[in-house]
Task: inverse folding
């Protein structure tokens, strides 16, 4: 799949910069690297709620985009379901994944500030 | 609810078990492994610990930032399993001063020949393909092992396995996805994937070797006989290898011996690095 | 981790445009800023605003990514398995924060590869604090407490930055970082209450990281001409000196709990200005490090370059595989 543009980015942004500041506009760079496409990520935080846009990431294809999104956006139990959207397609995580998809953050409570009880009572920490 | 009671409710399969819960069980005497069971837990704990140590090296060095995070998650999962198994194993072991051995006593104050991990886990990361090859073998092995271990008559082993199996199920998927991509990507990546499997495969056989300990424990319904996992391992990994157009490497098996404390040259370096600070300050708390 | 205020606005971009076609856009932009509302990616925005944001966000992202290195350096040697897990999670979080920020920058029309290319070519800046070496385990404490502490001071106001995607990325980052500073504090507390050797290790680390942490807030206000424009655009909410003073006040209190001292005997609370004051900082050193002549500049960039270049074959393989798969799907459909 070819790299996708950023759906949030204005199509005309480059030309606007050109028009206003010709001196400061670098020529578009050629990429010899096979850049991975950009995917937008939507996370449903719990059943009954809608998927909410969480951010974006890079991935070579939908399968890897989902896995990268799982690792990037649900490290703290933030999600029970993920959508990744390239340009015009939507892919959703497998609802039959038997919990394996979201098991890892369970029990890793050192990721939360409340785990660090010794600093209780200290201001601005 | 008392501290001990609170933890007793956690040691049930399906709960989000933390290493601290196991350590508490052991401290309060609620979980007390036999010597055999402790030795078995030590083996599984050492496997996971050495793997976590290896994988941790990738964080800040992976081929793409997204993969830094993916490998980091896997390393953290393995480290969590290691801590649980080692905490449990320590319940049947004592330090020279008579105190029970903690996860850290076991991780930082044992020498090479006292480690019980099989040699596959200590193999160098190599390039990304070699790491994926090792990861592929390891995650299928651990998935099958933990799946069966959830039925152990030892409640603590069963509980650790129940938490771990879901995580390694994901590791298995991660590794398989990459095997397919590297084998089916470019000419170079295919070459590297094949090479990765060739250098890891000699250490596969050791994973499935039975010995007296596993014999006794398997019979008692506590452990899983390693050899009994081989058929499923061959079938499941075979499916992915076939899809990737790869063959099982035709390489001779290494003699292994990690379960008896015989290791490759690599483990010494791993321990030297891992233990250096803790050993500089024996008895210190961190 | 670190939002360092290095951004500057090129002079040619600050000149106003008189094009009538843009009058409406400018009016709308001005209204949104005046209302203290948020600019979103598809809104019209002045080129200088876009450029300033791109520079600041990409520098911030690079700082997270380069900032992984001094701490990753200690993952293998962490002295307990609990600390190893915490450190791994933290360094991994930093990769995540870098990604959130790159993604905010990409919404401004520049892709991540361009930003990475600029970084490894040595053309992009990142927080100069990461060009200092992490020499002992206590540095993991000092980095968490002082460096992340300073970063949080900088970042909390950025959650209200006028550019929506930047503010949203900062909200997520601040939420996740609440554990970063606390774990650093606890590392130092353990060391301070530990053996004499441990306590000395902690004090030594605080001594080395204190001044670089204060300099993370950027040059003094009278030497930071572009801050004004950033504040007018509601990107920046407080001046460098204001944030620095606030930070010093917090550290003064916390260092007592740690049982350690700050290497600065000129810290005092100015009753007139109601602000905390500190001793002089070596801004020559700051500019030297910024210009690439710091202790670890070359090492940090080389490591990033190695990972990126060394990983090219993997990225290419995955892209090639994806392309083959999508062609197969198409053939099947046809």
Result:
């Amino acid at each position: 799949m070819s790299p996708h543009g950023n759906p949030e980015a204005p199509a005309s942004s480059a030309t606007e910069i050109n028009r206003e500041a010709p001196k400061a506009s670098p020529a578009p760079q050629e990429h010899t690297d096979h850049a991975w496409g950009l995917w937008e990520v939507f996370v449903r935080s719990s059943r009954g709620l809608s998927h909410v846009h969480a951010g974006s990431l890079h991935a070579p294809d939908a399968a890897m985009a989902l896995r990268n999104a799982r690792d990037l956006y649900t490290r703290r139990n933030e999600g029970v379901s993920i959508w990744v959207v390239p340009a015009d397609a939507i892919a959703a995580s497998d609802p039959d994944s038997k919990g394996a998809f979201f098991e890892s953050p369970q029990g890793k409570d050192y990721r939360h500030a409340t785990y660090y009880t010794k600093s209780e009572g200290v201001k601005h920490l | 609810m008392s501290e001990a009671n609170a933890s007793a409710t956690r040691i049930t399969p399906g709960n989000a078990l933390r290493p601290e819960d196991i350590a508490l069980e052991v401290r309060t005497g609620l979980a007390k492994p036999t010597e055999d069971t402790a030795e078995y837990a030590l083996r599984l704990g050492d496997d996971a610990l050495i793997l976590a140590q290896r994988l941790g090296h990738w964080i800040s060095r992976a081929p793409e930032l997204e993969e830094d995070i993916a490998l980091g998650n896997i390393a953290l999962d393995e480290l969590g399993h290691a801590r649980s198994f080692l905490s449990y194993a320590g319940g049947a072991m004592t330090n020279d001063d008579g105190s029970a051995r903690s996860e850290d006593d076991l991780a930082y104050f044992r020498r090479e020949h006292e480690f019980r991990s099989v040699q596959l886990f200590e193999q160098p990361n190599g390039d990304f393909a070699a790491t994926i090859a090792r990861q592929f073998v390891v995650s299928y092995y651990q998935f099958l092992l933990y799946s069966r271990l959830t039925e152990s008559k030892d409640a603590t082993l069963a509980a650790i396995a129940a938490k771990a199996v879901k995580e390694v199920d994901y590791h298995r998927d991660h590794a398989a996805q990459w095997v397919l991509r590297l084998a089916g990507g470019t000419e170079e990546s295919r070459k590297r994937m094949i090479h990765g499997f060739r250098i890891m495969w000699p250490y596969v056989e050791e994973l499935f070797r039975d010995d007296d300990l596993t014999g006794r424990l398997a019979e008692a319904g506590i452990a899983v006989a390693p050899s009994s996992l081989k058929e499923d391992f061959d079938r499941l990994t075979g499916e992915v290898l076939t899809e990737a157009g790869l063959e099982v490497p035709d390489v001779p098996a290494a003699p292994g011996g990690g379960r008896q404390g015989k290791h490759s040259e690599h483990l010494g370096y791993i321990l030297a690095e891992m233990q250096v600070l803790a050993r500089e300050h024996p008895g210190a708390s961190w | 981790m670190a939002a360092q205020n290095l951004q500057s606005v090129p002079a040619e971009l600050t000149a106003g445009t008189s094009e009538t076609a843009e009058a409406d856009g400018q009016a709308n932009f001005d209204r949104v800023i005046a209302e203290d509302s948020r600019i979103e990616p598809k809104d019209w925005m002045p080129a200088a605003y876009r450029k300033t944001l791109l520079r600041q966000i990409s520098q911030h992202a690079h700082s997270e990514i380069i900032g992984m290195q001094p701490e990753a350096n200690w993952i293998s040697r962490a002295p307990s398995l609990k600390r190893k897990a915490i450190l791994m999670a933290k360094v991994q979080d930093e990769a995540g924060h870098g990604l959130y920020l790159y993604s905010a920058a990409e919404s401004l029309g520049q892709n991540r590869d361009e930003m990475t290319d600029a970084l490894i070519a040595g053309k992009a800046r990142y927080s100069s604090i990461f060009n200092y070496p992490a020499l002992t385990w206590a540095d993991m404490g000092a980095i968490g407490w002082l460096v992340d502490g300073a970063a949080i001071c900088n970042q909390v106001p950025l959650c209200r930055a006028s550019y929506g995607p930047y503010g949203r990325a900062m909200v997520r980052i601040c939420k996740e970082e609440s554990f970063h500073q606390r774990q650093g504090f606890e590392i130092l507390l353990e060391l301070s209450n530990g053996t004499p050797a441990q306590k000395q290790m902690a004090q030594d680390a605080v001594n080395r990281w204190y001044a670089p942490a204060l300099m993370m807030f950027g040059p003094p206000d009278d030497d930071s001409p572009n801050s004004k424009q950033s504040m007018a655009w509601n990107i920046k909410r407080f001046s460098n000196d204001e944030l620095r003073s606030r930070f010093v006040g917090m550290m003064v209190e916390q260092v007592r709990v740690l049982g350690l001292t700050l290497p600065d005997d000129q810290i005092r609370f100015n009753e007139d200005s109601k602000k905390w004051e500190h001793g002089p900082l070596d801004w020559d050193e700051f500019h030297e490090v910024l210009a690439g002549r710091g202790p670890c500049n070359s090492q940090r960039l080389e490591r990033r370059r190695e990972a990126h270049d060394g990983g090219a074959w993997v990225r290419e393989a995955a892209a090639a595989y994806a392309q083959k798969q999508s062609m197969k799907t198409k053939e099947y459909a046809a």
